Amino acid sequence: MKKILLTTSALTLLAGAAAADISFSGTGRIGVTNVTGPATVTHRFRVNVNASGETDGGLKVGGYVRINMNGGALGAIGAPRLWIGNGMATLTVGNA
After folding, report:
1. 44 burial class (0-12, 13-18, 19+ CB within 10 angstroms)?
2. Using an 8 Å Cβ cutoff, are 34 and 44 in contact?
3. Within a 10 A sphere around the Cβ of 59, how many other Cβ atoms?
């Protein structure tokens, strides 16, 4: 019951957002490893997603998540971070 109430409250807060900004950034790397045996090619691609906005009442809300792709397969999706604040204080939950 508590999870449903918190989810409903979060959706209500986000539904009142006047505008939201979403940005994507990322990194990639390619390498060759050779420990004991034939050389192998390794690669990783990482995408960072940031979203933020402000409600009509002046509350600032946002979130962040990181997606990793290793060796051509989807790797771990990092634990998200969410926040809400009013300019004087900010509450952050998740991967802080």
Report:
1. middle
2. no
3. 15
Distance separating alpha carbons of residues 42 and 66, to the nearest angstrom: 20
Kindly report the number of other CB atoms within 10 A of residue 63's CB atom.
Answer: 19
Cα four-point dihedral sign 1, 91, 57, 51: negative
pLDDT at 12 over 80: no
48 CB burial (10 A radius; 0-12, 13-18, 19+): middle
Q: What's the pTM? A: 0.62
- Residues contacting 69, CB < 8 A, separation 6+: 44, 45, 46, 47, 75
pLDDT in tens, 22-55: 999 999 988 888 888 888 888 888 899 999 999 8
| Per-residue pLDDT, 44 | 85
